[in-house]
## 1
Amino acid sequence: MSISNPQTPAAIGPHNATVLLIEDEPEIRRFLRAILPQQSYRLHEATTGQDGLAQAAARNPDLILLDLGLPDMDGLDVARRLREWATIPIIVLTARGEEQSKIQALDLGADDYVTKPFSAGELLARMRVALRHAAKPPGEEGEASFTTGSLRVDLLRRQVFVKEKEVHLTLIEYKLLTTLIRHAGKVLTHRQLLKEVWGPLHVDEAHYVRVYMRQLRNKLEANPARPQLLLTELGVGYRLRAE
Amino acid sequence: MNDQRPDPDALLRRVQAEEAEQARGKFKIFFGATAGVGKTYAMLQAAHEQQADGVDVVIGWVETHGRAETEALVKGLEMLPPRTVEHGGTVLREFDLDAALARRPTLILMDELAHTNAPGSRHPKRWQDVQELLGSGIHVYTTINVQHLESLNDVVAQITGVVMRETVPDSVLERADDVELVDLPPDDLLQRLKDGKVYLPEQAEQALRHFFRKGNLIALRELALRRTADRVDEQMQVYRRDHAVVRTWPVAECIMVCVNMKPRGARLVRAARRMAAGLRAKWLAVYVQMPRHLRAKDADRDQVVQTLRLAEQLGAETVTLSGENVSQEILSYARARNVTKIIVGKPVRSRWKEWVFGSVVADLVRNSGEVDIYVITGEAGEGRPLAAPVFQRTSNWWAYGRGVLVVLLCTALAWFMFPYFGVTNLIMVYLMGVVLVATRYGRGPSVLASILSVATFDFFFIPPYFSFAVSDTQYLLTFGVMLVVALLLSGLTGRIKRQAELARQRERRTSVLYAMSRDLATRRRVEDLATVAAQHIGEVFESQIAIFLSAPDGRLVWQRGAQLSFEFDPKETGLAQWVYEHGQAAGLGSDTLPGAGALYLPMVGAHGPIGVLAVRPSRPGRLFDPEQLHLLETFAGQIALAIERVRLAEEAQRAQVLAETERMRNAILSSVSHDLRTPLATVTGAASSLLEGGDQLDVAARQDLANAIYGEAARLDRLVKNLLDMTRLEAGAVQPKKEWHPIEEIVGAALTRLEGRLHGQSVRTQFPPDLPLVHLDGVLIEQVLVNLLENALKYASPGGPIELSAARTDDAVIVEVADRGPGLQPGDEQRVFDKFYRGSQARKGGVGLGLTICRGIVEAHGGRIWAENRPGGGAAFRFTLPLEEAQPTVEPEQAEPHPAA
């Protein structure tokens, strides 16, 4: 992904960002200890939820990696308590088959998740996206245009181009697309999308999102059955591919 | 094979047995009540008689106890010298068996059969020596006292207080060819004892004097006599059987008491019991159920049941016969059982009734022949007439009216015939009328019709007409015969009708039993069986039914599902348990807790009791008669067998499932251990190479090793995931959380997930734009697609595309994943979905669970999955997802496209 923005944002990249890892399994900690400092992250570790909350308050990290299965308390509770006072991006580490807890964590305010076993590249990409979004002050829509793959959206003129050919979107389609663009690279739950596009009254009608997402794919994707941009995270939500 | 034709082997065996019997010596026992009655004396006397006849007699062993008369008899007979045995310092003299066998006399005398031989002898007991002698063909005379018989040992001990240690098995006595009872009245024996003619060893004298008391002697004498009599009775029974003797031989008394519906039955039964006790005879209580009794009042039927129960309690054998002629049934049964005395109640009918209807007692007395008939009085006023004849109750005034009407119609018909036919033919018209009335309206109206017929015939057709007067006296004979014929006809017709009724009732019972058996045979579950059984029994016996079945821990469980079951008194659960444990009926009307609300019958199968059947008559207080009880027991048995059958089948199935599970577990273990270890080996090897030789390896080699680790770890991850999915599916933990999805979205997600592995593989997709939304669990169906794609990847020929498509049918969406690989081997189309089945040409890895998981998930969605070969090569896997529900609505958006700003 490349963002062409006239005012270059503060250079908060992966470099020298502080990461707090709340994880009880030593093997995962060892693995992350091996790769994160290499990528110029400063890593702090906590093995329990309580310790994690305390360190989050004390160190004020730029990013938190939170395991949902902690020995002393539910990872979801940790996320909830963190969100009471901090907007620090949280990436949840979960095991497969726990779609429900992923959704809960995301709806509680976690920024993204990775499913164990995950590769280093996958985690680092999520972390980069999360940090980038955090660096951007909320509510500010500074970007004039957004480009990913063959898609280009002129946010000021509200024009959508696929391979530089203009595509006409309905109001809701456009709203759905811009919501995804605002969180590009991050997963959005059905609930979050419904709330932003249709309003808080429609948060339970997940098929709305699916129907419009299909329409959007038909207009934007070369092969809607093998999407390259509008990715489905089954059981969780959608993600706009950003890199 | 025909039973009549003798089995040649059996014949041969019998011939051999007979030959052995002939070769065997004859065995005679001189049997007495106690010592001192003169057994040895009698034996010696008999021996002398034999010797006089020229028989070679030898005394093997005799105890004269120094009695002069006995010793005198010993003289003149050859005596075998005893052998001496040293034991504990004393020298004992014993019978010399070997010498006897060597001497081989024709007859040998062996006193004191119960004797115990000295230690070291060939046999521990003398009776065993005797067996050997008999076996070698030597005849044996021996003596024994009743107290030495094994079976009577404890009886004697109870009477006399002296326990005999030397006993002889009863079979020895039973196998004797002859038993001669040596008897002496107790007083004579005591006299002999006083005179010192009976030998008593001094040391035991005191004890034995205590033993020889008159009371003891009388008891022992009776025992000996009875025992001999029993033996003789058996011989006689055998003789009677062998010679087909039908007549009663009044040797052993057997008493039969006849009961009916009268309350004095109890009195009769008690009288019979007293007589039987006095005669020491066995006794039977018999009830003859006549067809008309079927319509008797419940109270009367209960009376019979009560009386028979009483008889049973008092030790009688109870029998229910059925038939029309009471006296005939009683007598034929009595002859069959060799009954000597029949007890009946005194008739309570008035004389004229007896004259009209006949008297059972009179018939019995007249036809009893050799059997004695005892007529016993009932207490005054106690006797109640037998339940009034059935047809009087059932034929109401309406029936009588019809009877009269039929006679009038006959008269009218006869009136028209009168000018053309003779008077005799007119009689036929009337008789036809009587038969009609008898068949239709029963006995009373038919009797009335008979009499009326005669009267109207006289009145209208016999001169002088229109008058009952008769001019020609010979018509009186006509009237008489006509009346008799009419009455006979009505009686016979009525009887046929009643017998038909009885047959119908039996038929009904047989058919209900058959119906239930057939119904039971089709049921496969115990609960269904219980329900069916309860329905059938409830209908037949007009009762409410409860069925209790035994749980594995031996407790009874009430089958609540059974219809018609009643709310039984919880207190009676204990009663049901008792019935189950004792295998005896209890409750209402039985011997145990007759006051209970229901009758509890044990249900016994071929392998023991399986439960209890509780029956509560719909009309409170009603009891079941013996025949119904018997039928109930039959029902209970049928149900028990049916339930047992189902239980055994269930057990067999469980065992099969267990075996299958075991097989599966073995398969999973071998499969998992292999498939988990292979990637682990790669990971371990690659990682250790990196660790140990990391510096020497060039970048490409390191990259290679790392790739191997990564790839194998991913493979392990898939494997573990498949195993977990399978476990969840099998545990039934997978409940599809269905939502509305476009199918291509699921396909897209699956392709995205496999992106890395699909690299370089051409994938074609074909999804019509108008596909409906499908109600499915996205995560699960994605797994199906991922597994199918992985399977296709495994077999797809390089370069050959994997094709994904979907199509809509009327009620489902069909999704297809197809490859251009080698296709399926014939017969694999179904088996590929079996657990742990790996295609015959499996090239690589996989536990053989992926497709099984697919099937589990698709079936959980109500769909179907199958595989087939494609024309042009390759395999196609297809599955359906039903379109069962209405599509969800989506609020339409304004048609206007979003305007560009």
## 2
Amino acid sequence: MNSVPRQRLVVIGNGMAGMRTVEELLRRAPVRYDITVFGAEPHPNYNRIMLSSVLAGEKTIDDIVINPLSWYAEAGITLHAGDPVVGIDAKAKIVTAASGRTVAYDKLLLATGSKPLMPPLPGLELPGVVAFRDIADTDAMLKAAEAKQRAVVIGGGLLGLEAAWGLKRRGMPVALVHLMPTLMERQLDVEAGGMLQKDLTERGLHFFTQGQTERVLGDTKAEGVVLADGRSIPADLVVVAIGIRPNVDMGKAAGLDINRGIVVGDDMATSDADIYAVGECVEHRGQVFGLVAPIWEQAKVCAARLAGDNVATYATPPLSTRLKITGIDVFSAGKLAAEDDSDEEVVFRDATKGVYRKLVVRDNTLVGAVMYGDVADGGWYFDLIKGGADVSDMRDRLIFGQAFADSGCCGGAKAGMDVAAMADDSQICGCNGVSKGAIVAAITEKGLTTLDEVRAHTKASASCGMCTPQVQAILSFVTGADAAAPQAMCTCTEHGHDHVRHAIVDQRLKTQDAVRKALGWKTEDGCAKCRPALNYYLLCAWPGEYVDDYRSRFINERVHANIQKDGTYSVVPRMWGGLTTPDELRAIADVADKFQIPTVKVTGGQRIDLLGVKKQDLPAVWADLNKAGLVSGHAYSKGLRTVKTCVGSEWCRFGTQDSTGLGVKLEKLMWGSWTPHKVKLAVSGCPRNCAEATIKDIGIICVEAGYDMVIGGNGGIEVRVTDPLVRLSTEDEVLEYASAFMQLYREEGRYLERTAPYVERVGLAYVKKRILEDDAGRKALYARFLFSQSYAQNDPWAERASGGVDSHEFQPLAVVS
Amino acid sequence: MNDWIDIGTLADIPRLGARTVDTPLGEVAVFRTNEDEVFALINKCPHKNGPLSEGIVMGRKVACPLHNWVIDLNSGQAQAPDEGCTTPLPLKQEAGRLYLGLAAGKKVAHA
């Protein structure tokens, strides 16, 4: 036993800075302190930076929790969340919380963060005005977004832009008011700021730059804002995101030296030697903080001091900035522009591609970088800035990035990062403050081999994910696996998907066991990653011969319904081309009544979803639907989902062809097929494209002269507009060409790869070669598709409703009471 | 003291699959591996209560259908780096029949 009694550490502030300090402290001195943490918010510690991703719907609150409540318990930390501290008696060394609780300390850590900066505007107190600071603010914004109201965001910096984009993603019309002429003027130069504004305007945001907000409109709630030049912008939600200011309340309460923030020295101690402060509440050498990298550094130094290290000192590292808006890449570090005659600017601009780079060089060293569009080299430039390296011998190539600058030629052989040349303390993951050295150490000490493992153990690239390519490159470098080598299907094998598929066909492997034996699988019966893939590859290669293995299918495909978060299922009957009849609708209504199905919803694929069906009811639900002629819509499958149509020439005054009829024909031809991932089609009757064919896997757009076939679109997370493939003149041609492309994708797409990444991987030229330039090859693909379909088109619901297949799936084995 | 309750035969469970048993403890998932071993777990993933009986069985593990956590059938432990545990229950095979160990005093009715 340790004979020295533990000291008491009280932490005020349960945010990122405070808990990072505690984590570092526990690593250094796990038993030195009894730790008590007070937090004003009723939540465990979460990643505040990622609130913008929560707002944009890319992450949930659960996803951004850094330390769950169990972590506090395991570390022996007493957490009082939702109980803010209201008083500090620095003489008696006691803190008092709102609840009246008092706790004595030996050392006190202030990590109270910042408050949103609120301008002195009339109307700010109205309901409907929020800041963008915490989970409560985010919730308020999400609620407003649900009501599809209009929003105004005041502030065109990082936070304001991320808030605006998140609200836009949630479907709100959004206007953004910014005081300065260009966006993010503290991080971007005029050129990059202008490009950013142009891109975001194209994405539907409205900007009011050089806009000074004068007041918020409204009597009982916010109704808009008025600008000093008289412009007024109606809105139901006003988000103020013009900046932050250190929250110094606790520092004042303790009688500490306060300037803009709580003043700390290089040792992170305040004017009271037993009180430390870290994060956005502090001021160090006249500087206050808002970005995460320097705060991690403060946490490290503060923890070292608390652990008894008397020499650790803090110095603000150079800062870099990135914007978290999906699809918009911005990076900046150091100086934004030449400051005098001895500074030089090197600029690269490709307006068509939307790429811009500016480097600022001073005395043969790089002192600043601004990048827009392609930011892959951002980390490398940042390292050059931090290291102060002499860049004179690569100056003329510097602007083209690392691969080019290092190789001195066209770079092809050495594209990507030079991991070997990178210093161990180069920061790779800004969100989690993980250096190259830490990643390398985790890989070697723990024998990590996959990106997921590296994420799990180091948190690198686990937050915003922007550094994934760098982490991957380090992994390849350390493990010696060739970066160009295909990724293994899973940990059961070192073979990639393409190799396995070729082996199945070349060696005529016809069962999963045969594949696993022939290719040296490390596991007897595979895993949840490779089994579904092998099952699909075998089904595709040997139609009519291979027997589908239901134990290798995800639950949705096994029970032909979609599992929901509460363990119930959703059922979607097929509506051919989106057409239905009164009888079908009556049957659906009757089923919903009879089985007390709580939610009935029209889907985006023009059919009806019955949600909340109990598993044991599924066969009876299917039997009733079957009786009305309805069959499975395969809304759960890696296979053909829907063929969406508009009404076309039958009714529409603009329709050029019978788009509905063609959609029905396509769906009747393709339903039941299994594919690497889901496949959605659409047929529009004219170029107005009401069926949204240009974001489908296969789209047909009817024109007077025939049918334009487009491929490889996607409306999901990564929106991708289709590539035009060919104009056809008859419906029969459409059926043939569409089937041929479908079969090409079935034979070459990797399991869980949609057509969009497939087309990007193989290239449109390749698809054209196979489908357009090789008539015999196309006809052979079409024939193989038809052959495969002759075994695929059995309604899975009918098979199960009749009790013929898997009846055991739907009943418990026994009931014990 | 456990009662050993007859819940059916090995053949009632598909290889690499699972069936459920309704018990006073809630739903119990009974798994059968490729090697015909059987295991019983409370049918709730430690992550978000996903029904483990609906997952893909591999070796002596099952992947939860909701978010792919991998749970050890013998111990109920989640595979690292995920952390958590679901409760394993005693299960034995005798002469082709399966017996689930539950606290004394329970009866059985076959579904």
